[in-house]
Amino acid sequence: MPLTTTGDLVTRAAAAGSAVASFNVITLEHVEAVVAGAESAGAPVVLQVSENAVKFRAGQLLPLARAAVTVAERAAVPVALHLDHVQSDALLRQAADAGFSSVMYDAARLPYAENLTATRAAVDWAHAQGLWIEAELGQIGGKNGRPPLDAHAPGARTDPDEARSFVADSGVDALAVAIGSSHAMTTRTAALDHALLKRLSAALDVPLVLHGSSGVPDDELKAAVAGGITKVNIGTALNIALTGAVRDFLTERPEAVDPRSYLTLAREAMTRTVARTLQTLGSASA
After folding, report:
1. Which of 21, 47, 111, 196 gives a 20 to 30 Å CA spacing to 278?
2. At what angle do helices 160-170 and 194-203 cross, to 10 degrees?
3. Tens digits of per-residue pLDDT, 18-70?
4. Spans of all domains in the chain
């Protein structure tokens, strides 16, 4: 079916009291697994490509984007494309022509005033191109090998009053909030601040996004969705599934050299992870 938009999927999820899952993809196997898992669950899904994934692909966005568009257009469920954690304005400006309907513009590393100025400029450009745009306030941590911030470090958590002003002044369509999760977690031990989430949900009239969801246990994820999270980003969980399947196969068969043998198992493992996550979020059959 034709590509849908991230904004439409998030709006529909919010109306249904669920959340749309947005999976980071790095390889074609990631893309195929996400769509297969979504089809298995009968759920819509977002394929997202991060700036780090573009850097891994020699700085070229189009090869992976074109592959994602092709797979998405053949899917039996609605699929949208999202460009994630963009810090480069040059990359931002490639989004619309590459098939993306949305962008997460990441200036959260900057002091508040600079974050707002940069985000406002990105929003103005994105909206002129018909793009839905997400930003981040508070520091979720764990990106680019940096350790996650301590939960009580200044700026680690999103302040509701500051968030209200930021959303109003920047014009963003969604906000990623820091409530206790962290990027790149390989254990599911994150404890979310649900009291803070309740305050953020009451203070803001835009969808709330949870980054670093691979490290969040199922019960915590369900509670986050019930508390107002409508977009959930998952990346590391897919990489754990992929790497585990490849590692197990090559440990048992060290003589193997054909990558199709172990990449098939890796893709299947990621597919199961996607389907299970969608069931947890209540996205299945949406």
Report:
1. 196
2. 40
3. 999 999 999 999 999 999 999 999 999 999 999 999 999 999 999 999 999 99
4. 6-281
Indicate if 84 belongs to the active site.
yes
Encoded tokens for 112? 């508040």
Q: DSSP strand E in 108-158: where? A: 132-137
Q: Tell the residue number behind the tokens 């107002």, with chain if given.
A: 228
Q: Which two structure tokens, joined as six digits, stand for 197? A: 């989430």
- CA 192, CA 189: separation in Å to the nearest integer? 10
Render pLDDT for 154-186 as a digit per residue (tens, 0 to 9): 457 889 999 999 999 999 999 999 888 766 666
Alpha-carbon gap, residue 97 to 189, rounded angstroms: 39
Q: Is the dihedral of CA 18, 22, 28, 33 positive or negative?
A: negative
* Phi, psi angle pair for 56, to nearest 5°: -60, -35
The pTM of the full predicted model, rounded to 2 decimals, is 0.91
The letter for the amino acid at 238 is L
- CATH number of this structure's domain 6-281: 3.20.20.70
What values do phi and psi take at 134, rounded to 5?
Answer: -115, 145
Q: Classify residue 98 by its DSSP letter.
A: G
Per the prediction, the chain carries an average pLDDT of 91
Cα separation, 80 vs 7, whole angstroms: 9
